[in-house]
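So, can you check this record?

>
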Amino acid sequence: DKHAKVLSDLALMQKIIAANGLSTDPQSVVGLLTPPPAVDGKVLETKRGGRSGSDLVEISIGSDDGLAEGHKLSVYRPQSGEKAAKYLGDIKLVYVTPDRSVGAVILRAKNGIIEREDNVTSKLGQ
């Protein structure tokens, strides 16, 4: 009886989760539950969002580096000659492959725009 009740409860929970547009795949929530590992990468491409759409940033690191959807990373421009390093904002990963990831900009700094060749790291927020 207990086993049948647990299976029934599980089926109900999965329906509720799916009805709210969430995934029931445990791998899809790993990034929400664990902090990202210490990683550094580069911005490969940026895409401005349309009306009310978020800006997207493609980066050079992915699941082979320990990243998962939901992880948050910081974007910065390194020091160059006389110019000091500049914090540009934060991204949240929305799509992760072994070698690359795509993040949506969730926090934008007022002092610059994220561009190709900017750096990405998990170390600033820690």
Observations:
- Residues 43 and 96 are 14 Å apart (CA to CA).
- Residues 2-19 form the longest helix (18 residues).
